[in-house]
Amino acid sequence: MKNIIKETTDKYGYRVVVELNQNNQLIKQTQYNPDGKTIWYINEYDPQTGHPTKQTEFKSDGQTIDYIEEFNPETGNKIKKTEFHPDGVGIDWIEEYDPQTGNKTKQTEFKSDGQTIDYIEEFNPETGKIIQDIFYNPDGSIRSIEEYDEDDDDHECNCEYCDQ
Fold first, then answer.
1. Residue 34 domain-assigned?
2. Is residue 150 domain-resident?
3. In this structure, are 22 and 52 located in the same domain?
4. What pTM, to 2 d.p., does this model score?
5. Domain check: are 54 and 81 in the same one?
6. Number of domains observed in the structure of the chain
7. Tens-of-pLDDT digits for all 164 residues of the chain?
8. Which structural domain, as residue segments, surrounds residue 29?
9. Which residues contact 81 (CB under 8 A, 6 or more apart)?
10. In this structure, are residues 110 and 118 in contact, taking their beta carbons and an 8 Å threshold?
């Protein structure tokens, strides 16, 4: 038996296409821009829990990816977000989240080439507070590490890697 495709409109009159599995459970929803032709975003769902597993949002052309969010199918908490360059190919940054608390655990920023890591911020998954920054040289080696005191948000450079 095939999946069921239904077309409808949302409360604003925008075109929406939903895909249901053989058990009539939502597995995918495609939301269109006001023109009714270009895709605004696509949501994918876990059929057992009903929670979203992935959202892909597109730029106004309906083809170039703006960002992708991934979710824990058990809790519905966001676990990862990848933001792309305007061309939809290179990566601007990636955020990672604790699947249970939903707190950000890591943010990786990329250089303008969309591939080379510029720096990584790490966060305490329990509190969401920043605990460390790691800065990279263009060749991928570590330039410096800054560690933070969670109690007062103060930080100091680990001079083993500093370029001072």
1. yes
2. yes
3. yes
4. 0.87
5. no
6. 2
7. 789 999 999 999 999 999 999 999 999 999 999 999 999 999 999 999 999 999 999 999 999 999 999 999 999 999 999 999 998 889 999 999 999 888 999 999 999 999 999 999 999 999 889 999 999 999 999 999 999 987 765 555 554 555 44
8. 1-59
9. 67, 68, 69, 70, 94, 95, 97
10. yes
